[in-house]
Design goal:
This protein is mainly alpha-helical and 65 residues long. 71% of the residues lie in helices and 0% in strands. The longest helix is centred in the middle third of the chain and has 27 residues.
């Protein structure tokens, strides 16, 4: 369950950044930050799904605990 909450938290952060910096969409730093957060969010989401269904250790934590 911790992996799922981590993935949901990453998604909330990404959406929050998009809403907070909507005025800066054309700036380069905005695009870099959004893409970086998106990559982390996708990794967290995929890791949580794999761990949830396959019990594979991807994030460095023991999935059985």
């Amino acid at each position: 369950m911790n992996y799922t909450l981590f993935a949901i938290g990453c998604y909330i952060v990404m959406r929050g950044l998009q809403v907070l910096f909507v005025e800066h969409i054309d700036r380069l730093w905005y695009k870099i930050v959004i893409k970086s957060v998106t990559v982390v969010m996708i990794y967290a989401a995929l890791s949580s799904l794999v761990v949830w269904y396959g019990k594979i250790n991807l994030l460095g934590f023991d999935p059985t605990k």
